[in-house]
Amino acid sequence: MDQTQRQPRRMGWRFVFLALLMAVAISGLVRSLWLDVYYIPSESMEPALEGGDRILVSRTDFHSDPIRRGDIVVFDGRGTFAPLNSGRGPLADSMASAGQWLGLAGSDTTYVKRVIGLPGDRVVCCDTTGHVTVNGEPLEEPYVYSGDAPSKQAFSVIVPEGRLWLLGDHRSLSADSRSLLGAPGGGMVPVDRVIGRPVQIIWPLDRFAAVPRPAAAGTTTENGQ
């Protein structure tokens, strides 16, 4: 093979390599600013989201319409639900991040839960009818997993400014704000740790569907939201 034949092949491989780099860069930009993909590793949000689902998460939905009660949120749990440092080392962290970025594995630090209490809310379990109450008003929670009680664990909390009280829909299987009542921060997640809102189940194909945003949960008396 002479030099003139080798040169077009090299040019072709360079073009493919550059095209791949561009695709990765564009994908990274889209996922960091608008839409990201996350893997649901557990059953804690059934029936809305099942273990093994891959979901599209909008990073911008809450910019124009702030978080409200009843919203499902994806959030960074480091410092609340998870340690700030994994302790596994940079190589293991990089490999785990790659699997998460590709949507092949769940994250040890990213969680999906439902917003029950906003800043200033008093959230209590439970009233005489077995309902969770927010500022004295019982919540109707049609999203709770069939057969589960709203909570078998009693609690009474006031959500601080800039924080959220979060529960899973499959209450009997969910590790959520209730699990951290005795920990620093009391299970309250900072609002600025919220990554976005699930908008679409993209895998498996037989579950391909939009994730609708529900009406705000409950009517309250203290902060009027």
Features:
225 residues; alpha+beta; eight-stranded antiparallel sheet; four-stranded antiparallel sheet; 3 helices; disordered C terminus
**Uncertain segments:** 219-225
The radius of gyration is 21 Å
- End-to-end gap: 74 Å
Classify the beta-strand content into a percent band: 15-25%
Residue share in helix: 10-25%
Mean pLDDT: 82
Counting H and I runs of at least 4 residues, what is the number of helices?
3
Would you list the SSEs in sequence order as H and E?
HEEHEHEEEEEEEEE
3D shape:
globular
Biggest sheet details = 8 strands, antiparallel
Element layout with pairings:
Blueprint: H1 3-33, E1 35-39, E2 54-58, H2 61-64, E3 72-76, H3 90-101, E4 110-117, E5 122-125, E6 133-134, E7 137-138, E8 155-158, E9 163-167, E10 189-190, E11 194-203, E12 209-210
Antiparallel strand pairs: 1-2, 2-11, 3-4, 3-11, 4-9, 5-6, 5-8, 6-7, 9-10, 11-12
